[in-house]
Write a structure and sequence with these properties.
Shape: elongated
Largest sheet: 2 strands, antiparallel
Number of domains: 1
Order of helices and strands: HEEHH
Strand content: 5-15%
Radius of gyration: 36 Å
Strand order of the largest sheet: 1-2
Helix content: 55-70%
Mean pLDDT: 84
Length: 125
């Protein structure tokens, strides 16, 4: 399997080299390139096209790397928040239950906090 992979990589390299050679042979005409801060110069068309393609690919890769880094940092932040919340859930699960001596907690059917709230509403309203 390793030999097949190496032959495939070699074949792709040879095909790319032949295509690049044909591209250079068909585009030898000089082109005047005038950039903002660089004096005008005459370069072969194939060279200008390859350099501009490379710079465009570099700009796209830089933008993609920026987006990937930003999203990975957001994912890391959310993972940390989720871990903190899972730890809090674990702590809440391990809390001891209320003992019977304390009586029923407020707000349950055994207590009378509902009446207290009703009286407060009547006084305010």
């Amino acid at each position: 399997m390793r030999i097949v992979r190496r032959l495939l990589v070699l074949a792709i390299f040879v095909i790319a080299f032949v295509l690049l050679w044909k591209f250079v042979a068909r585009n030898p005409n000089p082109v005047q390139v005038d950039l903002l801060f660089v004096p005008p110069s005459s370069q072969p068309l194939w060279y200008v096209l390859v350099v501009s393609f490379g710079l465009g690919a570099l700009a796209a890769a830089a933008f993609g790397a920026y987006q990937w880094l930003r999203l990975s940092l957001v994912a890391r932040r959310y993972r940390r928040i989720a871990q903190g919340l899972e730890g809090e859930i674990h702590q809440l699960r391990n809390l001891p239950l209320a003992s019977q001596q304390e009586g029923a907690p407020r707000g349950t059917a055994g207590g009378t906090p509902a009446l207290g709230r009703l009286e407060a509403v009547e006084r305010n309203g």
